[in-house]
Amino acid sequence: MMCGEMTKECASRECVKCKDKLATYAQAAERSSQLIKYHQWQKDEADKVEIASSVAEVFAHLKHKLRSFLTHVYIKRKQDAHMRMLKESADGTTILLQIDFSENA
Predict the structure, then answer these.
(1) Spatial CA neighbour of 1 closest among 51, 53, 49, 62
(2) pTM (2 decimals)?
(3) 8-state DSSP, 5
(4) d(CA 95, CA 100)
(5) Beta pairing class for 48-54 and 35-41
(6) Looking at the predicted structure, is the pLDDT value of residue 105 above 60?
(7) CB 70 within 8 A of CB 10
(8) Which among 48, 54, 21 has a CA at the least distance from the CA of 36?
(9) Distance between the two ends of the chain, CA-based, in angstroms?
(10) CB atoms within 10 A of CB 68
């Protein structure tokens, strides 16, 4: 669905090489009559529920979420690389803190 190495353009679905790669999968998804069962966390609860949807519905949901997910992955990888560099170059007077919280939308 993307180029080999994720760039900012790939993550934002603006890369001319990979932005339309989903079209091939979309055609196959629309032709399928198969149901898929999967689990999904509920937004306001700490519960997972089982959902049964058509391939086309699952694909549409994925397509809707893909840009924000890929942007999240891109930022996470950049932040990890930066933290790794800071750890490797830290001297005895450096403190690194990493605080993370979930921001499920």
Answers:
(1) 62
(2) 0.70
(3) S
(4) 16
(5) antiparallel
(6) no
(7) yes
(8) 54
(9) 23
(10) 12
| Phi-psi region at 102: left, alpha or beta (left = phi > 0; alpha = psi -120 to 50) | beta
Q: List, in order, residues 6 or more apart from 40 with CB less than 8 Å away.
A: 48, 49, 51
In three-state secondary structure terms, 49 is strand
54 secondary structure, DSSP code: E
- Note the residue count of the chain: 105
Tokens of 40: 């999904």
- Coil, helix or strand for 95? coil
Q: What is the pLDDT of residues 67-90, one digit of tens each?
A: 888 999 999 999 999 999 999 998
Distances, alpha carbon 66 to alpha carbons 22, 40, 82, 88, 99, in Å: 10, 16, 24, 33, 25
Quote the Cα angle for 21-26-27, to 5°.
Answer: 110
